[in-house]
Design brief:
The chain is mainly alpha-helical. Helices cover 90% and strands 0% of the residues. It folds into 2 domains: 1-37; 40-81, no CATH class. The protein has helices at residues 2-14, 17-37, 40-70, 73-80.
Length: 81
């Protein structure tokens, strides 16, 4: 598993924001395809699980991104040292 994470880190070092956007579109499309094939009785629990994962991921990402958005150099230095 650590070999996989190391390879992902190396790949991310060369990625641009455009590459990351393509990756996100790909993952979104996969999620939509999975949602289409789920039976109706399983869609509501899947939607709740997806919502929880979204919130759990979105809050820390935005906490790191907002200082860049508002241009707060002190906050950026606190995040990245």
């Amino acid at each position: 598993m650590s070999k996989l994470f190391a390879a992902a880190d190396r790949f991310l070092d060369i990625c641009t924001w455009k590459d990351m956007a393509l990756l996100k579109f790909c993952i979104c499309a996969l999620g939509i395809l999975i949602g289409i094939v789920l039976p109706a009785r399983r869609k509501r629990p899947a939607a709740w699980a997806a919502s929880l994962v979204f919130v759990a991921a979105y809050i820390p990402l935005m906490a790191k991104f907002l200082p860049f958005l508002i241009g707060d150099r002190i906050a950026i230095e606190d995040i990245y040292g």
